[in-house]
Amino acid sequence: MTGHAGMADYGHDIACASVSSAVMMAANTITEAFKVEAEVEVSENEIVLRLISDEKEYGDRVLLGLVTHLYFLSDEYQGCIRVKVIDV
Question: Is the pTM of this model over 0.90?
């Protein structure tokens, strides 16, 4: 995920904070709770999560839940959050 929602100033944007929190929770659930081998890179305006090995598909299931949640957030904060799924 990349960018800033633009709903409010940086650091005060509830839409941005909602997305960031959801993504970090998903990443932590995948890597810490399910022990799925993954790479997580966090920078100021980008979070990248790459699943390296996910034999039991726990990571895929968590990501499906994340995408579903992000679609709900995009409905709640229309014009601030855009969901684009890229399968690589």
Answer: no
